[in-house]
Write a structure and sequence with these properties.
Chain lengths: 328, 285, 252
């Protein structure tokens, strides 16, 4: 097939091959584009599909009980049809909040050091990322090997002796070591790397000119960090913490392995508890054999989804606003 | 003390606090790794790696191994990564070659960020729902599909970051030659191949370690993985079940399994990091 | 010309950024209560020299040898507190960089840190905003974020902020080049008025500006000192051929 070169511009418009290669390419382009758009749309719609599917499965329980009854009731007797989620919601909240209390200060200080002061940053940052890639079950195993015995033999008795009389929060009625504190500690370690990573990125996005301006006025490096850098990065730091909370709330296996798995309202740090993800994971075997049990567990999954979605969306919007602000 | 000294003391105090917190974290990392290695090495044997388990997963005797779980995890992760790539690459192409900078692109990225945050147990519950509807039982296929869902947002985000780094001049000059968007996408992909490979490795590593998603959907078995329609063992669940066993001998094997899993993941992370650096030498800057 | 001791004396200053030798054996004088203009083509080390005068260069990872004497005291002496040096030698950067605080807090930032003017911060802020000719424009919105100001206003705010720590010397790193011509002129007029009370050092790539402002001139080329002296002499009868060529626009 001979290809004749067009001599003028008008010639170029005429097809020079027996089929118009240009139109072919454009059609492929458009078709592929539409296909990819479809895939993208499907993926984006996934959130809604997941929510809808869970809602449908949970409907038998959700439609026959008021939201208030589900959230506040502490009675959990699946065989009798009593599905009060309060113990599990409380378990999730307490373990997650404890993890945040333990992780956030350490993570923020670490991120500050990493972003503003560290000279060996390129060696240390990968190690933090390594913490993030350790699978959940290994954290759980380590928790069982190390943290639980520590609580059982040392921390538990000590807290009971010293603080337990004054503050019921620290009273130790559970000698096994498996409980909220173990879950909180393990979860804190798991959530630390993500808070560090996001905070680090946010701090590095603060323009250097601001730091130099502060230093040029005679401020020390710490004063610059305290009054200028952190101030500018604050929305991003808050977003990092919110993201961490969201991750911690949904963590399943590591917490399950150390938290004791008793369906009760935890009254102290040393009590056993069952966060929402553990509830689902523990009972999936029996879920089909008791009526409405599967709907209840799907309702728990739906609750998880809603909480995580809200927190995540809030954090992302905060981060996005920080980005548009610094671009302005 | 005078003002100057107070300011500098404050700086020294807080710098020390910062260093300590980092030290603490790294110390914990070291502690975890050392514990896993020490306990695991003690229970590890050649048998464990090369044989499948015998005698039921709760009451496993001293013979047998975790080969079924190792292979199962590898198949699950490979299948999930392949599926996620098949869905994720079109998304990234669409975002970068067809949409460029636009509000729609930002919304799509937000949607994927939201998906990224969904805990894997929710994906597991969702997939289980669908599987019941479709009459599927817990199987390798179910596990692959679920893990693909979990891993898709991670993959898309990682690939997106990589393609974003391509300077816009490359894109513009290609388009100026009269290429279609699809053809430009091919060039983009070729340019970013190292980064995409790293992203895929990251996703693979994540898929191997996830337990909550496969709990409902892949089941567990002592047999070697042989078909898509049968349940399959996985390393994280192997560890979990072994640890829950009442027999100390079986519990000890949990440590060994954990060592294998951790070693696998560390190897993949290292590979990902090295590949990013090595293959980047050939890209246009 | 009256002999006054120089405010700052730089001797044998060498600055390296990694392997790059940015400044080579610079020895210059900064005369008191005058505007010294540092000129030269881009990349010749003007900003580096400027930032060596208030020890800001080391923030960017520079290695420095040599001495910089401020009223006879070497500012690089390890026994001296860096923050007190920077309080005496202020900097106005090229890109206006307001701190993420209100207008009031921007100006008050330096005094608060150093403990100046406790109890009369309001007067202090007002005085320096007036000195920067910004007071009338912002007096009703002192608590508003500084980022809401126009670029020219922001630079004047940065000037007020720099003056509020009551430095002896003000360094200006191409402080008007990021501004539109009207704002640039306004800031330039402010700088030229400052020399009654402050020693000013200005880095500029704009020779016309150097001619307008400079009492004393330092000409750098590729990290080396070519010529320094009173502006009248250097601009009219440069001693070096290279200076002549640069002034004529033939090089750089």
């Amino acid at each position: 097939m001979e290809i004749t070169r067009p001599r003028t511009l008008t010639d170029a418009r005429r097809p020079v091959l027996w089929w118009d290669r240009g139109r072919w390419r454009r059609s492929v382009d458009a078709l592929a584009g539409r296909g990819m758009a479809a895939v993208t749309l499907a993926a984006c719609a996934l959130v809604i599909v997941i929510g809808a599917a869970l809602l449908v499965r949970a409907w038998p329980v959700l439609s026959t009980r008021s939201p208030g009854a589900l959230i506040w009731s502490q009675t959990w007797h699946p065989t009798q049809g009593a599905f009060g989620f309060a113990p599990f919601i409380a378990g999730s909240l307490i373990v997650t909040l404890l993890a945040m209390v333990l992780a956030v200060p350490a993570a923020l200080f670490s991120a500050l050091y990493l972003a503003e002061y560290a000279r060996m940053r390129s060696a240390i940052k990968p190690l933090i990322d390594l913490l993030a890639s350790i699978p959940s079950v290994v954290y759980g195993l380590w928790g069982v090997l190390f943290i639980v015995p520590l609580i059982r033999t040392t921390i538990g008795p000590w807290a009971d002796r010293t603080l337990g009389h004054a503050l019921p929060l620290f009273a130790n009625r559970n000698p096994t070591g498996y409980g909220v504190l173990a879950g909180g500690i393990v979860l804190a370690i798991m959530v630390y790397p993500i808070i560090v990573a996001v905070t680090d990125e946010v701090l590095r996005s603060v323009p250097q000119g601001m730091r130099e301006a502060s230093l040029a006025l005679g401020a020390t490096e710490w004063e610059t960090t305290k009054y200028v850098t952190v101030r500018k990065a604050l929305p991003g730091i808050v977003a990092a913490v919110v993201l961490g909370f969201s991750r911690a709330f949904g963590e399943t296996l590591a917490v399950l392995m150390v938290v004791g798995n008793v369906a009760q309202m935890p009254g102290s740090l040393f009590d056993a508890a069952t966060p929402l993800p553990a509830l689902i994971a523990n009972n999936y075997g029996e879920m089909m054999s008791i009526p409405m049990f599967d709907a209840a567990l799907m309702a728990a999954a739906l609750m998880l989804l809603v909480v995580v979605l809200l927190f995540n969306a809030a954090a992302r919007l905060m981060l996005a606003r920080l980005q548009t602000e610094s671009a302005a | 003390m005078n003002r100057q000294r107070r300011r500098h003391l404050e700086q020294r105090v807080f710098t020390t606090i910062m260093r300590l917190s980092l030290f603490l974290a790294l110390g914990v990392l070291g502690l975890i790794l050392v514990t896993v290695v020490r306990k695991g090495l003690g229970a590890l044997s050649w048998n464990m790696l090369t044989q499948s388990s015998t005698g039921g997963y709760y009451l496993g005797s001293d013979e047998g191994g975790i080969l079924n779980a190792i292979l199962g995890s590898l198949y699950l992760a490979a299948g999930a990564t392949a599926l996620a790539l098949a869905a994720g690459v079109p998304v990234v192409i669409y975002l970068h070659a067809y949409l460029g900078r636009s509000r729609l692109a930002d919304l799509i990225r937000l949607a994927f960020d939201v998906l990224w945050g969904i805990p894997s147990i929710v994906y597991g519950a969702f997939a289980f729902t669908l599987m019941l509807l479709a009459g599927m039982r817990a199987s390798l296929l179910g596990g692959i599909l679920t893990l693909a869902l979990v891993v898709l947002p991670i993959l898309v985000r990682a690939m997106d970051e990589v393609v974003r780094l391509v300077p816009s001049e490359l894109r513009e000059s290609t388009l100026a030659l009269g290429t279609t968007r699809l053809e430009m996408a091919r060039i983009l992909l070729r340019q970013t191949l190292p980064g995409l490979a790293t992203a895929a490795l990251l996703a693979f590593g994540r898929a191997i370690g996830d337990a909550a998603a496969v709990l409902f959907t892949a089941g567990y078995t002592d047999h070697m993985p042989d078909s898509l329609g049968r349940p399959v063992a996985s390393l994280p669940l192997a560890i979990f079940f072994q640890l829950s066993s009442p027999f100390p001998a079986v519990q000890a094997r949990a440590y060994a399994s954990a060592l294998v899993l951790t070693a696998l993941i560390l190897a993949i992370s290292l590979l990902a990091r090295l590949s990013m650096r090595a293959l980047s030498k050939h890209v246009v800057r | 010309m009256a002999q006054r001791s120089a405010h700052m004396v730089v001797s044998d200053l060498n600055v390296w950024y990694g392997d790059q030798h940015a400044l080579k054996n610079i020895s210059v004088d900064i005369p008191r209560r005058q505007i010294t203009a540092i000129v030269g083509p881009s990349g010749c080390g003007k900003s580096t020299l400027l930032k060596s005068l208030n020890r800001l260069a080391e923030i960017g990872g520079a290695r420095i040898s040599g001495r910089v004497l401020l009223d006879g005291v070497d500012i690089y002496d390890p026994a001296i507190d860096v923050t007190s040096i920077r309080a005496r030698v202020g900097l106005l950067a090229q890109k206006p960089c307001p701190l993420p605080l209100s207008i009031y807090d921007n100006v008050a930032y330096g005094p608060r840190i150093h403990g100046l003017g406790i109890g009369r911060l309001d007067d202090l802020v007002r005085a320096y905003l007036q000195a920067a000719e910004l007071w009338d424009e912002v007096k009703d919105r002192l608590k508003a974020p500084a980022t809401g100001l126009s670029l020219g206003q922001q630079q004047r705010l940065c000037l007020a902020r720099a003056l509020a720590v009551q430095p002896e010397i003000l360094l200006c790193d191409e402080s008007t080049s990021a501004l539109d011509p009207i704002s640039a002129r306004a800031v330039e007029d402010l700088l030229s008025g400052l020399k009654r009370d402050y020693t000013v050092v200005v880095v500029t790539h704009d020779l016309a500006q150097a001619r307008r402002l400079g009492d004393h001139v330092i000409f750098l080329w590729l990290g080396e000192l070519v010529e320094q002296g009173p502006a009248a002499r250097v601009f009219a009868q440069p001693a070096q051929a290279r200076t002549q060529a640069y002034l004529a626009g033939e090089i750089g």
